[in-house]
Amino acid sequence: MTDRNDIMKALGNVMDPELGVDLVTLGMIRDVKMQGDTVSVMVALTAPGCPLKNKIGKDIEEELKKLQGVSKVEVLFGSMTEAERENTFQKAGGKGQTQQTEDPLKKLSGQPIKRIIAVGSGKGGVGKSLVTSLLAVAASRKGFKVGVIDADITGPSIPTIFGQKGLLVAGEKGVEPRKTKKGIEMVSMNLLIPDPTTPVIWRGPVLAGVLRQFYTDVNWGNLDLLFVDLPPGTADVPLTVFQIFPIDGMVVVTSPQELANLVVTKALKMAAEMSIPLVGVVENMTYFVCKDGEKVEVFGKSRVQERCKEQGVPYLGGMPIDPSYARIADEGAIEDAVMPQAVEDTLKTILGEK
Ligand SMILES: Nc1ncnc2c1ncn2[C@@H]1O[C@H](COP(=O)(O)OP(=O)(O)OP(=O)(O)O)[C@@H](O)[C@H]1O
Ligand SMILES: [Mg+2]
Question: How far apart are CA 170 and CA 154, in angstroms?
Answer without folding.
Answer: 22
